[in-house]
Specification:
This is Rad50/SbcC-type AAA domain-containing protein. Pfam families: AAA_23. GO terms for molecular function: ATP hydrolysis activity. Residues 388-415, 446-473 form a coiled coil. This protein is α/β, with parallel strands linked by helices. Among the domains are: 2-151 and 580-653, Rossmann fold, CATH 3.40.50.300; 293-401, no CATH class. The chain contains 19 helices and 15 strands. The chain has helices at 41-53, 67-74, 129-133, 135-142, 155-163, 167-176, 182-199, 205-254, 259-262, 264-290, 299-338, 343-364, 376-417, 429-472, 475-478, 482-524, 560-578, 595-605, 625-630, and strands spanning 2-11, 14-21, 30-35, 85-95, 98-111, 114-123, 126-127, 152-154, 531-536, 543-547, 552-553, 584-587, 613-617, 634-643, 648-653. It is extended, with a radius of gyration of 35 Å.
Amino acid sequence: MILVSIAIENFGAYGGYQEATLTPEEGKPIILFGGMNGGGKTTLLDAIQLAFYGAKAKLSNRNRLSYREYLRQSIHRGSDPGEGASITLRFRRMMEGETRNFELQRSWREGVKGIEETVRVRRDGKLDDVFTDHWDEAIEAYLPSGISHLFFFDGEQVKELAEGGHAAEILGTAVHSLLGLDLVDRLETDLKSFERRKRAEGLDPETAHKLNQVRGELKHIDVAQEQALMQEGALVNEAGRLGKELRQAEDRFRAEGGELFLRRQELDASLLKFKAERDALEGQLRELVAGPLPFLMVDSLLREAEQQSRHENDIRRARVLIDALEARDDELVATLHRESITPALLKRIDQTLRTDRTNRIGLAQEPLLLDADEDLALHIAHLRATVLPTAEEQAQNLVSKLAAVEENIARQEGEIERIPTEDRIANLQTALDQAHAAHQAKLAELEAVRLNIRALKTQREAVENKLNKLSEHDIDARFADDDRQRMLKHSNKVRDTLTKLRSSVVRNHITRMEALMLESFQNLLRKNDLVTGLSINPATFEPTLTGRDGKALPIERLSAGERQLLATSMLWGLARASGRPVPTIIDTPLGRLDSSHRKHLVERYFPNASHQVLLLSTDEEIVGKYYDSIKPYTTRTYLLAHNEQAGQTTIESGYFNK
């Protein structure tokens, strides 16, 4: 994706119509904006995110405001609320191998019934109804809002990541968003239960008595767990009721009632059902794409490979036959000569045999380009004749079903979108605050019960281990039944395999992230030998650094600046791991870094962060020598000029004192 331009009209500090060209030149990825504190830098970042994500955007000053109220308050104070505000983003991206130009406009105004928002999307100069009606789904599919913070962030976010202890949470979410290991966990639990049941057969009385005692402990814990779960269920219901009351208060606070509003729960449930169906179909389609389906795109290459494989089989046979044929032909000619065949006929036969050998020698001397197994041609033929047609038919089936579900989702969302809204009712503010406080208190009580449930789970695991040890005691003497022993052996092997599978899957993802983060960190760190390794615990996702002595280097031993560079490297590494070609936008990029760390960030990160980098700097950050360092990589600069008297920011070409 390349951001081509942004046009802001009466949004936040930006009064009137303001526009900036964002397209970078080759080898100059940076577009640099300069502005004083409070001059509109963060508002510019908010504008881009708001245009893309609407209500899902992570905005700097929304706080607890409803989306509609945020839009109302973001209209420039010097403009007419009835005229409203708008943000227009022009960008281009590759779709199906072709470059497509988009114009995304999000506008809103104060209408009779409150804030009225409109989203319009033009593709290649023409209004695109599909993208317009389903923009939320389109942008979530291309760049989900959940990972947008890897590409659009500010210095405070980096500081929080460096000092707030959220690294493991971010890494864990990134990895587990790619994996689905619940099926493996359920299978492992079932196998453990099966093994205990088999081991309990044929125990001696003393062991059986001990086993019954431990089972009693287990039963006691199960009762406590059941009670805790019942308490949790009651609290969940109570929290749900309070949550419902909170939502009702919020609805009364910001939304207008009506027949469609009364059907909101029904419509939401129906929409969730259709979306779940879509997710299931997309999951099946992804499984097909992860299999042999992509080979359909290279059928001609497969055909060539099959032909080449068959030809190389002929070459191998020719190499084997050459020596045997020469001896056979000499013997044949000698035999014919003894049979008194005419010299002319004998000469023709000899010539024919020589020609055949010559042809085979030429074939045998050809190189083996593939040098694959002799049955490769058969495998490719089976793939083209059977596997790929079946996969193609299944894919077409799924695509057809998916299109029908998408139509249902669009129709359902259209009905939800038509639900009318009502003006804000100020006297409901107190009721809303009370409902929120009651809901939060109940959630805290629920969390305490869940902590108890987790403690009981840990206790149960300890008793289960004790039970397993008793079951395994003197197993040879108690298990004379060969079939039972064999079943236990195989079950244990399967569990070992599942454990290795889980660890391997997680490790495969973690390893790539570790490499990308370490590479990014070493690129940014001014002490090249300070950190020689970065590892992530596949169970807890806690990052660990390795120092020059090969020992663990506590992150707390890094300076504040080094920790911020580490946090920046984590964001950079995760963004690279996502594989999405998206611009990077950084507000207040240098934050509280000291001069030496600033130098490395300016020289090593900003020019390489992405193919397009928007930097929003104060007059104390990218200035002087830092500006000179970044200038060769900068396509254009802008100054966000703020007029205090008019309360208005304008976008002007140039930079601080330039």
